[in-house]
Write a structure and sequence with these properties.
- Helix content is 34%, strand content 16%.
- It is built from 6 helices and 5 strands; from the N terminus they run H-H-E-H-E-H-E-E-H-E-H.
- The radius of gyration is 17 Å and the shape is globular.
- It starts with 13 loop residues before the first helix and ends with a helix.
């Protein structure tokens, strides 16, 4: 059994490992789950899309195999879509600079470290403030970066959830 943490088919080399195993005559099977790029934000009350707020979302690697920032982040910074960046903490300064270059200083940002685990930590800020939030809260990898207006919906969703829980 090869138990893969994270998303084996989202920047996880799952297909490479399956192809290698099959080339050696090994049978393979995949038991899929819900990707962390969707489930972790949802778990903390952040929808990736919402009518009137965000019509789409991007899921982008923060660091390519060449250890560079993905060129797709440049394109995503120009869009109105929600942007989810995996493995991007080491490139956070570059990411925020791209969004600032698009005059998006006040766009909300959430960083969710160790999502859905007992060690989960959440930092909320804007493009202009998130690096300070990260420093103050000592946020590190593994973390998911969510950029977009949908981050502002978190408080409303959590408030509704707590009201329903008390009924």
């Amino acid at each position: 059994v090869r138990l893969k943490g994270g998303d084996p088919f989202i920047f996880g080399r799952g297909s490479e490992e399956i192809n290698y195993a099959r080339s050696k005559g090994l049978d393979t099977a995949v038991v899929s789950g819900i990707t962390s790029s969707i489930s972790v934000p949802a778990n903390v009350g952040i929808p990736l899309t919402q009518r009137g707020t965000a019509e789409s979302f991007w899921v982008i690697t923060g660091t390519t195999s060449a250890r560079k920032l993905s060129s797709d982040v440049y394109l995503a910074a120009q869009s109105t879509a929600t942007v989810v960046i995996l493995m991007g903490m080491s490139k956070l300064s570059e990411i925020t600079t791209l969004f600032k270059n698009e005059s998006k200083h006040e766009v909300p940002v959430a960083i969710i470290q160790s999502g859905t685990t007992p060690e989960e930590k959440i930092g909320i800020g804007t493009i202009a403030t998130i690096e300070t939030v990260v420093e103050q809260q000592k946020l590190t990898n593994p973390a998911i970066i969510v950029i977009g207006e949908v981050v502002n919906n978190r408080e409303k969703i959590l408030e509704i959830s707590s009201q329903v829980a008390t009924v």
